[in-house]
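From: lab user (bench 3)
To: helpdesk
Subject: output format question, protein + manganese (II) ion

Hello, I'm new to running complex predictions and I'm not sure whether the block I got back is the full result or only part of it. Here's what I submitted:
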Amino acid sequence: MALMTQYDLHTHSTASDGSLTPTQLVERASQQGVTHLALTDHDGTEGIEEAKRIANKAGIALIPGVEISVSWYGATVHIVGLNLDIDNPELQQGLAQLREYRQTRAEAIAQKLEKAGYPGALEGASLYASKTMLGRVHFARFLVEKGHAKDMKDVFKRFLVRNKPGYVSGEWATLKQAVEWIVAAGGQAVVAHPARYKMTATKRRKLLREFKSLGGVAIEVASGQQHPEEVRTMAKLAEEFDLLASCGSDFHSPDNSWTELGKMTTLPPFVTPIWNQWA
Ligand code: AMP
Ligand code: MN
Ligand code: MN
Ligand code: MN
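Helpdesk reply: Thanks, we reran it on our side. This is the complete output you should expect:
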């Protein structure tokens, strides 16, 4: 009997800004029919060990991953690393720098919110994560909790983004560093959610060209519940730049503002899935 496979190669746990623990995430993925799950928390791999243990029990494959924050010509871009040796010192030193910056940035975000009339944000957001893992989602939870915004979507419209209270422009890794750390750890570098960046098609091509020349191998052709037409456009880009195709839900939480585990739009048949070259 042919076994069904379902790959979800982009997910988050409480080790970054997800709301499920690695254990809960893996159990939910298994219930949703995911057979190959990558845990790709922002700028850290703390959740991997626990996820691996539970995946073994649940009988699904756990791919050790990460989602690295990158600053590229004024834009923030996310690079996913898959199949990482998480004990690699070069990778871990790089990620540690980014988490240190997260702490600095969190203080700056809180100061800006305070000036705009929203005090106590650092303490409030810290209830949801350690200081070096603090992200905008944790500030968002604080702002919703305090009644300053009605939900996640509302927060990211009215706060924490350019020209709004609490905005701090990121100073993350370079594209070169992110790819190098992933390659040093024996992994594959993937451009996360390429359709989501607010950039021109020309700039997106420049990103993919540079990414490929640095040693990147894939893009997320399908990320979350995208319109099939947009997925096709990304698939064509993968073809044009001779990049492999990855797919992931970018799941953060069971509340319905996020795509369910394993439920992203399917890959068009003409791309080469990144897992084709996996053992
Ligand atoms: P950070 O890396 O701390 O700047 O936070 C980035 C994270 O914020 C993303 O990974 C998402 O989880 C979340 N995020 C960013 N933009 C939005 C949005 N428009 N709606 C909901 N969540 C968002
Ligand atoms: Mn996130
Ligand atoms: Mn992302
Ligand atoms: Mn993500």
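A quick orientation on your result: The pocket of adenosine monophosphate (ligand 1) is lined by residues 17, 42, 69, 135-137, 152-153, 156, 252 (CB under 6 Å). Let us know if anything else is unclear.
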